[in-house]
């Protein structure tokens, strides 16, 4: 069950990322032994989990704020997969920053590039005229953000049949 105000909860976020990042989401890095018998370590892990929950809610709100003008945000379940991907791409770098990391590291650069790509895709989706992503539009518009064009060509069976068609229209 997602958090109130978020599209994912901690467990769902951990399931969408690799094992190392899942440990980051759950706060397992705080006590490398995994015992969590020390009350100080348990309290630190609970603080970390509250931080993760807050980032999930904040990043979900960011997605909603960027898309609300055109789309029916917040999205009802089932939430479009692209929205969940954007949420993961926004949250994970914030968790690494909260834990502490070297931003010049290759993995850090990769995560920051994913975050920027997600922000650019959200900007494209919000500003798109024809709907780059198939997201549900607001209720006062149509059901999908993609505008499908109709046939733009017309042909008759033979090269001179258009003359017959014109003659029939005039009569």
Along the chain, the helix and strand elements come as HHHHHH
As residue ranges, the low-confidence spans are none
Largest sheet: none
Q: How would you state the average pLDDT, rounded?
A: 84
**Secondary structure: helix percent:** 55-70%
Portion in strands: under 5%
Query: What general form does the structure show?
Result: elongated
Radius of gyration: 25 Å
Regarding quaternary structure, what we see is: single chain
Specify the number of helices. Answer: 6
Counted beta strands: 0
Coarse structural class: mainly alpha
Task: For the record, give the distance between the C-alpha atoms at the N and C termini, rounded to a whole number.
Answer: 68 Å
Description of the molecule:
The model has no long low-confidence stretch (mean pLDDT 84). Helix 1 packs antiparallel against helix 2, helix 3 packs across helix 4 and helix 4 (81-99) packs antiparallel against helix 5 (106-127). This protein starts with 9 loop residues before the first helix and ends with a helix. With 171 residues, it is an all-alpha fold. It has helices at residues 10-16, 19-26, 39-67, 81-99, 106-127, 161-170. It contains six helices and no strands.
């Amino acid at each position: 069950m997602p958090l109130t105000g978020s599209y994912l909860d901690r467990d769902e976020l951990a399931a969408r990322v690799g094992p190392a990042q899942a440990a980051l989401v759950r706060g397992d890095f705080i006590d490398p032994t995994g015992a969590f018998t020390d009350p100080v370590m348990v309290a630190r892990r609970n603080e970390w989990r509250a931080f993760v929950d807050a980032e999930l809610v904040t990043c979900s709100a960011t997605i909603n704020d960027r898309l609300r003008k055109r789309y029916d945000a917040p999205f009802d379940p089932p939430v479009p997969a692209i929205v969940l991907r954007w949420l993961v791409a926004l949250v994970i770098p914030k968790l690494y920053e909260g834990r502490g990391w070297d931003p010049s590291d290759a993995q850090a650069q990769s995560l920051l590039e994913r975050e920027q790509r997600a922000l650019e895709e959200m900007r494209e989706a919000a500003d798109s005229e024809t709907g780059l992503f198939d997201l549900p539009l607001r209720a006062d518009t149509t059901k999908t953000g993609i505008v499908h064009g109709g046939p733009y060509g017309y042909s008759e069976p033979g090269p001179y049949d258009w003359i017959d068609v014109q003659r029939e229209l005039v009569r």
